[in-house]
């Protein structure tokens, strides 16, 4: 069951804060999940958010910190001393603590680390800070349960009890050799159902999926998703077990990647949200619009070249937005399917095959649409039949061109290591607008003999 | 580490199949994960896919069935007798087995169910088939570990060993009363670290998140994601524990939902992939294109109305694709941010506030873009300054209009229970094209006094 923030609840909280009734506030928030408290804080002003944060005890606030928007978190952290921040981080798992430290300004980073109470915890966090945040190393946590292949089940259970104190969820028990190299895994279930005297080396599973510290996060996500893993161990260059990644971190990666592709298709760069400031939203949106505007300049210029046509066939100019829009739509459709296929790794095989398939598809769609256009321009719009022929043949050519470009560009971008999602959205619509108009008038001139 | 399908590997397999060397094939596929074998089968022709399926033993084939594309799976199942299908399903968990049965034709469904060996398993599957596939009931599995609140830890561990036989991953231990009503949960860790004589009622956690059988799948996904849950229990109308949903099923929901929104933004309906047939791809793409084409008819008609303007200001017609494209781009940007916000439940507060924010944002963007357009039309394109003024002021108005429409429509759709993602893509670009052109010429006529 989920808690829903209501307007009434928010004003009740605002009321309590303005009257400085911290006890009543604590009571009100007592049974509310930290993820919900974070959402409440994001709805309040800075003072209100800070007030709630200072009122709650650190066990809850540490988790709240994690759930907050980066912007709100930064404001809260700015008002905390390094010692206070360290106290929050002591409550968190290593990967979460490292993520928060990474956001701090350089000088504060070191102060906070030096204030961490648990030395082992601090060492683990410092170790995690070395890795690129988009890599397996940047995603992994140090909390894991590992056993030596030479132990027996009894020692194993004993050791595990000690280790499990620091681990909130036991996913898998990893088996290592004396050099800490990953050898295999052991399921909790096996441990539950095996005699205590059995040697680990007899029962552990030697086949274990793993990733290296420098594997890209999206790659880790794909592997865990494909093989249905809830956790995956991470090894260093020497094959030594250095951490583990759990599925909840991967969900964030999957969600972010999907959101990013969606935003790029809609012409928004950076990961923005509706609640971000106008300046941030402008930074994410304006560059694409400027790009489209310059593309527009070219289309104005191209149309200007065909001005002489206007004298004899002004109606051709009425059809330009239609042709441009169709080119844009077809281009986005084609590229979106390829971008998604590339993201899911289902695009294999030679490019030529893809293009041939897209060619058949666009021929089929194009012919149907051209016939509708022919009928529509004659019956609906009342233009002469030779105008209908001209725009219909032009439409067919433009659709074929747009779909081939939409297929080709993302594949090429991907080949050269550029995010193919860049090709969707304003980029493809703008270039297809221009090429569409050029193709359209060229064909019209040929057909009409002007 | 992940296995990658290479062209060479595929042709090696094709070779072995054509030479009917099943033993060599088995050897080659021995260490390959079932998810990878499924991918290989999807690359082969029907005969090859069937050959591999028949060669492997049923422990592996059951999992492969799950991983296959629906289309390929259907072909494989068509060639199996009800008894053979039942044998595959006996290897699967209840939710996976139910998903596959749900895809079978009605008469085959009953035959397969009657052939299931394990009666309990069969009963659970039949039970699951009752639920809507987009609900918690449709997602859940029956495999779970539950204990009675009146037991002690020792009984508990004993009972759990028996239950765990059927459960591949133990996420949480659920505590129920004598009526099977969900009372709370117990972590494996607690069980590992508690004395065996302790009574369950003393140690279990009374606060437990749960969903009802009829909760929507996207809602379940949001709850599990927000509260960072790896499994969630499902209760019926009377609060009785009837199943559990695990995070791996939720990842599929998240992925599908994100893919769907992305595709709608790109003007593709239905969940299609690059590898689908041309007919399926056409079914997903053509309707949007036809919609856009009819929108295009309206824009042709609108431009026709303004034909008299052509005599004095032909250049206005050169700017129409630019204006239409900008209106489309701005509209998609605005709606995409709202659609994403609605999906993530971050859009709260009155609509008027949103519109005011969008108004400021579009004013800021619009003024910058209009100045660029003014400068560009004068310096780059060489048009007279009064032309520049006219198109710039029109652009500003069109941008404001487009962004307000882009914000308003998804919110309204959502309010009336329609998927707001429908509003992005061709729908918004087409309507903004038309309105943009209309606004543009109306303003131009006023300014130029024609």
Structure characteristics:
homodimer; 450 residues; mainly alpha; MgtE N-terminal fold; CBS-domain; Tetracycline Repressor, domain 2; 3 domains; three-stranded mixed β-sheet; 23 helices; 6 strands; magnesium (chains A, B); Mg_transptr_MgtE_intracell_dom (chains A, B); transport (chains A, B); transmembrane (chains A, B)
Task: Characterize this entry briefly.
The structure is a homodimer of 450-residue chains. With 450 residues, chain A is mostly helical.
Describe this structure as you would to a colleague.
The structure is a homodimer of 450-residue chains. By secondary structure, chain A is mainly α. The first copy, chain A, has three domains: 126 residues, Alpha Horseshoe (MgtE N-terminal fold); 109 residues, CBS-domain (Roll), CATH 3.10.580.10; 171 residues, SLC41 divalent cation transporters, integral membrane domain (Tetracycline Repressor, domain 2, Orthogonal Bundle), CATH 1.10.357.20. Chain A has 23 helices and six strands. In chain A, strands 1-2-3 form a three-stranded mixed sheet. A three-stranded mixed sheet of chain A has the order 4-5-6. In chain A, strand 4, helix 15 and strand 5 form a beta-alpha-beta unit. In chain A, helix 3 packs antiparallel against helix 4 and helix 8 crosses helix 10. The radius of gyration of chain A is 30 Å and the shape is globular. The mean pLDDT of chain A is 88. Chains A and B meet through helix 12, helix 13, helix 15, helix 16 and helix 17 of A and helix 12, helix 13, helix 15, helix 16 and helix 17 of B.
């Amino acid at each position: 069951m989920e808690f829903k923030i209501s307007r009434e609840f928010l004003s009740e909280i605002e009321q309590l804060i303005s009257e400085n009734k911290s006890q009543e506030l604590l009571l009100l928030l007592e049974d509310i999940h930290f993820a919900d408290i974070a959402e409440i804080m994001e709805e309040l002003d800075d003072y209100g958010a800070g007030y709630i944060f200072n009122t709650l005890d650190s066990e809850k606030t540490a988790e709240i910190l994690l759930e907050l928007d980066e912007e709100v978190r930064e404001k809260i952290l700015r008002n905390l001393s390094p010692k206070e921040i360290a106290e929050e981080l002591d409550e968190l798992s290593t990967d979460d603590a490292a993520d928060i430290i990474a956001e701090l300004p350089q000088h504060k980073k070191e102060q906070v680390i030096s204030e961490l109470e648990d030395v082992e915890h601090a060492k683990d966090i410092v170790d995690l800070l070395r890795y690129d945040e988009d890599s397996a190393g940047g995603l992994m946590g140090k909390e894991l349960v590992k056993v030596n292949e030479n132990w027996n089940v009894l020692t194993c259970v004993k050791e595990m009890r000690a280790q499990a104190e620091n681990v909130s969820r036991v996913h898998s028990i990893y088996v290592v050799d004396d050099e800490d190299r990953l050898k295999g895994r052991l399921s909790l279930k096996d441990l539950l159902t095996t005699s205590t005297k059995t040697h680990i080396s007899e029962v552990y599973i030697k086949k274990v999926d793993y990733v290296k510290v420098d594997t890209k996060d999206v790659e880790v996500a794909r592997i865990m998703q494909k093989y249905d893993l809830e956790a995956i161990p991470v090894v260093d260059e020497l094959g030594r077990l250095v951490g583990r990644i759990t599925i909840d971190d991967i969900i964030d990666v999957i969600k972010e990647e999907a959101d990013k592709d969606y935003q790029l298709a809609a012409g928004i760069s950076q990961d923005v949200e509706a609640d971000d400031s106008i300046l941030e939203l402008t930074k994410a949106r304006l560059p694409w619009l400027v790009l489209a505007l310059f593309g527009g300049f070219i289309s104005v210029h191209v149309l200007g070249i065909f001005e002489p046509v206007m004298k004899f066939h002004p109606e051709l100019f009425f059809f330009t937005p239609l042709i441009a829009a169709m080119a844009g739509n077809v281009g986005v459709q084609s590229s979106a399917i390829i971008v998604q296929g590339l993201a899911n790794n289902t695009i294999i095989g030679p490019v030529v095959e893809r293009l041939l398939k897209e060619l058949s598809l666009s021929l089929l769609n194009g012919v149907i649409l051209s016939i509708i256009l022919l009928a529509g321009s004659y019956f609906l719009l009342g233009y002469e039949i030779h105008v209908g022929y001209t725009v219909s043949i032009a439409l067919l050519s433009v659709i074929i061109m747009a779909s081939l470009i939409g297929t080709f560009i993302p594949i090429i971008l991907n080949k050269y290591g550029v995010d193919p999602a860049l090709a969707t959205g304003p980029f493809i619509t703008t270039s297809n607008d221009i090429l569409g108009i050029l193709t359209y008038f060229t064909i019209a001139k040929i057909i009409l003999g002007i």
